[in-house]
Amino acid sequence: MNRVIEVENLVKVYGMGEGMVQALRGVTFQIERGEFVALMGPSGSGKSTLMHLLGCLDTPTSGRYQLEGEDAARLSNRQRAHIRNQRIGFVFQTFNLLPRLSALENVALPLRYRGRAQGVRDLAIQALTNVGLADRLQHRPAELSGGQRQRVAIARALVTNPAIILADEPTGNLDSHTGADVLALLQRLNQDDHRTIILVTHDTHLATYAGRVITLQDGRINREW
């Protein structure tokens, strides 16, 4: 395996003076291509802040974050937006699907944002087929179950063939049975397709689907297992 993420002494501070909050206090770890890693911790542990930094949604106060060998911490807003579109696939708790678009159209959106014109439909169909929704291409989100909507969101994350899939509490709005199905799908994508997956969760049970768990507490790595 080769390294896809390298984080060294990452610090994130919000506010100034008496209102200053140190959300991350020198976090260091690496993730190899093809790993399934869970970032786990309670509310206030720093995992959401870390997720935003890994997803290039924010920049650290200090420290180094390299994504596929590139120093993401030093990029401009425009460059970070490019990375989010090209190299990171996001799966959120709230699905974030556009209600007026079909499953197929929702999955095709990242490719259209890239300006791609050729082969978009075929790639979107393949992504939906890979998550078991070949028979739901024209259904809108309101016509799908919660689990199916999350599968559409996963297909949308996969369609650009990103370096990593960043899943933020992806089962938070699902019942336990449907949530287990979604986690099993992510696990299969990791094992069969060798996708690099980072799962952000507070749930110890969900973390067991990952091959490695990094736990945070008070802005620091507490343990790895």
Structure notes:
This protein is of the alpha/beta class and 225 residues long. 33% of the residues lie in helices and 28% in strands. The strands form two sheets. A six-stranded mixed beta sheet has the order 6-7-8-3-9-10, sandwiched between helices. A four-stranded antiparallel beta sheet has the order 2-1-4-5, with helices on one face. α3 packs across α4 (120-130) and α4 crosses α5. The longest helix has 18 residues, at 176-193. It starts with a strand and ends with a strand.
SSE topology:
Elements: E1 3-14, E2 21-32, E3 36-40, H1 47-54, E4 62-67, E5 70-71, H2 77-86, E6 88-92, H3 103-113, H4 120-130, H5 146-158, E7 164-168, H6 176-193, E8 197-201, H7 204-207, E9 212-217, E10 220-224
Parallel strand pairs: 3-8, 3-9, 6-7, 7-8
Antiparallel strand pairs: 1-2, 1-4, 4-5, 9-10
Helix pairs in contact: 3-4, 3-5, 4-5, 5-6
